[in-house]
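pasting for the record
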Amino acid sequence: MPVAGGGFEQCDNAQAVVDTASLIVMLPWVTQAVNDKQHVVPMRERLQALPADLNQVEQAVADTGYFSTNNIAACAQVGIEPLIAMGRDAHHPQWSERFSEPADLPADATPVQRMQHRLKTRKGRAAYALRKQILREPLFRRPPGGRDRATAL
């Protein structure tokens, strides 16, 4: 795979769908495709192929590497509420931002605007924060002194 700074390394891109309630890895997947954006639809399809009692997804929480208009539409198409970061947020926002709610959403909002609005609500921020504590974060972290070679959904 191509790596930052140029050149190539023998490595993979690991993806995982994790149930936030039970912390069970529902779908692991390893690929050599570098871009995470192209993994939302295949993972959604793999998830839908699971038995009916295992594939009832209400929300998809993912980092900014998965953000695209097509991925938001792909989630909405099957009734999954996407919460995909659209960029990097400040690590230490003003204290008042933690307790505020965004202005009302216009009736003609696009799917991207609706998702962006959800991410700014207290409920949306709390749901997105789960991404940091589910199994996938420690599972795919770089080893001490090593390079981060994997990303997960």
